[in-house]
Design goal:
This protein has about 290 residues and is of the alpha+beta class. It is built from twelve helices and eight strands. It is globular and about 65 Å long.
């Protein structure tokens, strides 16, 4: 359906969005090991099959939206992954995908389902299949337009839409900067990615952290961008540490009660993790900061 393709193309161009389209056939080349990821409960079929996500699925639209870099709270981008310090990308991308489907429905009637991060489908694999970019050694999708600093939304439809192909021949060949700069060695040349060591995982898991884990997270209260910050495909994104601002921001969050936390961070990406986990992380980060200052 060329007219539908043109609607997608025009919408993406007007919103500075990258996009790709692929068929909704099951992914191939995966095994049960893909279920070994944190915070996911589902089936193997659910991970690889758009047809299990939407009955009669025929095409998958992949949208790549540049990250929001303006933090929603002073200093927040100095104590967490800067790419997550703005308005919750789940809500932002969901609204973008809904607006696009409304425009498409003006042309043709169809059924669809939208996924932004929290669904079963392997978003990176469909981004790769749709030609948006390639999977880097840091496990991120890297595009020629935004590097890896973009978020992904999937729109699974029951209509056939022309597929896209890769737009650039990109690769990590000859580069191992992300492997060398990963502070916990969650990324390694021989063993791939071990999420149990990843700062992003450690700052999201519930319960008490061990002493080595507390030391590993440094001053991050949510996520980690280090493997992306050093990537040559990304624009300079590393902020100076500004330890005084880090102290002040951590102390301000720690002083909040649960109601104040909810009111201040309801639109934040980390809001889903809850008051207790984020406050725990702030206490750990402040302790690490003070220890390093001694």
């Amino acid at each position: 359906m060329s007219s539908v393709f043109e609607i997608i193309e025009q919408y993406a161009k007007s919103g500075n969005i990258i996009f790709g389209i692929c068929d909704a056939d099951d992914l191939v080349g995966f095994d049960e090991s893909i279920l070994n990821i944190p915070f996911f409960k589902g089936s193997f079929t659910g991970r690889i099959s758009p047809g299990a996500f939407l009955h009669g699925a025929k095409s998958v639209i992949v949208l790549g939206v540049k990250i929001e870099t303006e933090p929603i709270f002073e200093g927040l981008n100095r104590i967490m992954a800067g790419s997550l310090s703005g308005v919750d990308y789940h809500k932002r991308l969901l609204n973008i995908a809904k607006e696009l489907t409304r425009k498409m429905l003006e042309e043709v009637n169809f059924n669809f389902k939208i996924q932004v991060d929290s669904g079963p489908l392997i978003e990176r694999a469909f981004a790769l299949k749709a030609g948006i970019g390639f999977i880097g050694k840091n496990n991120c999708v890297i595009s020629s337009e935004f590097g890896s600093f973009f978020n992904i939304a999937l729109i699974v439809t029951d209509i056939n839409i022309d597929s896209t192909a890769a737009t650039a021949n990109l690769s990590c060949k000859g580069c191992e900067l992300c492997l060398r700069h990963c502070p916990t060695k969650a990324l390694s040349k021989n063993n791939g990615f071990d999420y149990n060591k990843c700062i992003s995982y450690l700052t999201q898991k519930k319960g008490m952290l061990s002493e080595p884990e507390e030391n590993s997270v440094g001053v991050s209260i949510y996520g980690c961008d280090l493997c992306q910050n050093v990537c040559p495909y990304n624009l300079p994104f590393i902020l100076s540490s500004d330890r005084e601002l880090q102290h002040r921001t951590l102390e301000r969050i720690i002083s909040m009660d649960k109601k104040q936390f909810f009111e201040k961070f309801e639109e934040a990406s980390f809001f889903w993790r809850g008051y207790e986990v984020i406050r725990r992380n702030c206490l750990i980060a402040l302790n690490n900061l003070q220890r390093d200052d001694r």
